[in-house]
Amino acid sequence: MTVAIENQDQTKKAPPLKPDWITIVFIASLHLAALLAFIPSNFSWAAVGVAIFLHWVTGCLGITLGFHRLIAHRSFQTPKLVEYFLAFCGTLACQGGVMDWVGLHRIHHQHSDTPADPHDSHLGFWWSHIGWLMYHNHADPDIPRYTKDLAEDPVYQFLQNYFVPLQIALGLGLYFLGGWPFVVWGVFVRIVVVFHCTWFVNSATHQFGYRTYDTGDRSTNCWWVAVVTYGEGWHNNHHAFQYSARHGLKWWEIDITWMTIQFLQLLGLATKVKLPAE
């Protein structure tokens, strides 16, 4: 596949990309499995409750708080055991290994909305939302260079290599707790919903919303993305102050993850919290 990148004044072409069939089959299979939720015997309100709870555990504590604000940007510090717990929660989101996730995100910030950006929004909503995942990305070989701080840690090595077996173990636990409804909603439905919530940060918040800061890219603040991602939708603010633990900077920009960090501060579990200068 050859991808054309349209800028305001010129058209560039990225190198041909090869389909990543393992990822394609993996993502497609999860979406198909999530359709099992439409079978009446797989529905229960308890199962829906499990999915909502695990959405918060994996999406908020794991991806937003752990993978993103703590590990990728080091916007605050926690005791190592707390950091590992948050990384474990993020691993259960099944969005690839932690080093892959963090490395690609750091590359995104380094080259936001340029041909070197793994999910360059100039290529359209579909590409930045999910299309880029379907190919062996040109940024993949650079991941080790962007994750040297994690590479030698045996816990991160384990989470990187065994995120699928850990998901299977979670599924087995849910099966023994509540049967197939817990598995369908707590694993398949929840994973797919968290997938798309996270992907909206790559796509929607580079297409829709308002811009408070001139960041040199297309990042925007999008309220509805902030709702489904616990505050990640204030993306223009984040690109302006990448190191900041707080993304919602105006009083109306509600940021659940920032509130969580404040709670950890009260418990003495979050220190050296970075914020924008006045």
How is the secondary structure organized here?
Blueprint: E1 4-6, E2 11-13, H1 21-34, H2 45-72, H3 80-91, H4 98-110, H5 125-129, H6 143-146, H7 148-151, H8 154-161, H9 163-203, H10 223-228, H11 235-240, H12 256-266
Antiparallel strand pairs: 1-2
Note down, in words, how this protein is organized.
- The longest helix has 41 residues, at 163-203.
- The chain is an all-alpha fold and 278 residues long.
- A two-stranded antiparallel sheet has the order 1-2.
- Helix 1 crosses helix 9, helix 2 crosses helix 3 and helix 2 (45-72) crosses helix 12 (256-266).
- The chain has one domain (12-266).
- Helices cover 55% and strands 2% of the residues.
- The chain has helices spanning 21-34, 45-72, 80-91, 98-110, 125-129, 143-146, 148-151, 154-161, 163-203, 223-228, 235-240, 256-266, and strands at 4-6, 11-13.
Using DSSP, what is the number of strands? 2
What would the principal axes of the Cα set say about the shape? globular
Tell me the strand order in the biggest sheet: 1-2
Q: Count of helical segments?
A: 12
Instruction: Give the rounded overall mean pLDDT.
Output: 93
Largest sheet: 2 strands, antiparallel
Identify the notable features of this structure and list them briefly.
mainly alpha, 12 helices, 2 strands, disordered N terminus
